[in-house]
Amino acid sequence: VIDRNIRGAEDTFGHHGELVPMDGRAIRKHHLADADILVIRTATRANAEVLEGTPVRFVGTTSIGTDHLDIPWLDAQGIRWSNAPGCNADSAAQYTLAMIQLACQRLGRELSEQRVGIIGRGNVGSRLQRLLDAIGVDSVANDPPLADRGVEGLVSQAEALACDIVSLHVPLTRDGPYPTNRMIGPGQMARMPSGGLLVNAARGKVVDGAALLNALGEGQVHAALDVWPEEPELNPELLKRTVVATPHVAGYSDDGKRNGTFMVYDAFCQWSGRSPNPRGDDPGRQYLAITEPGRALDQVLEATCFAARHDRAMRELVEMQPDGIAPAFDRLRKDYPYRRDFHAWDLQCDDPATAALLDRLGFEVNNT
Fold it and tell me: What is the pLDDT of residue 340?
């Protein structure tokens, strides 16, 4: 049984058995009565309620996060599980940059003049920091688990929160020394500068939704959100008050999705002793000519991430009846258009300085 939104399923898992594609949120125990393998994304819970008494022995999630897996229960039952850490980190970091740029435009601010505090410098946060460095934007990063391991160059949470922009890139955890569930609450928002921008492309529940709505209502902060506290149920007031709103798609590039599938597929083959089916051909290149060097960053982010398009679609949800919002939110994710990471783009740019900047971001640039 496999989430129907998982890219490349036929070319991987389809070679080893019968695929039963389903909507991820609809998967229940009775659907797994004859299933050996369950392959999901974040929309499906993998716990005793769904799996107990079924023949499922392997659970794979083609996502970075694992907060939707009951890992202690899976381990206790001897059910092998796998996730895909870092599979869509480039995609998520690039999309976060697009959200930040769009928010700055709407707030009448120059990104080059902002300081960004990154909370969580793992796979995504570290890549975002490199992208910001590439375009000359000052940034700092806070990550207590990395600091505990002796990683240098990190700052306190207070210093990160004091930046003009605060971008969150942490997993959702509820225990351990640094739980992240509702880690950004009233106290943390109060430490942000007046009018600061909070960006969340991590997990919705790392932010206290009620506190954020209050802070937005008072004009204390602004917010650019790709993830939402109770998604797919959205608070229309929170949606209306955000400066940028997108439907949990930061990591939704074709490259990220395929990477996630291959990582879980490889883990499945190792577990089952099967030989993996060879990977298919590269899906090809994308092309773009830079027509206005002064707007090159805007042009490439619009072409590669199209955050503004999905922001417009999200605004339409506000006009819906409450019971129609969640299905519409899920449709935006299901019908997400084809998108490639920066490395898959060939750019034509005749301005040497602009070409150098785009090269630093990871594009292939022809400036002849």
Answer: 96
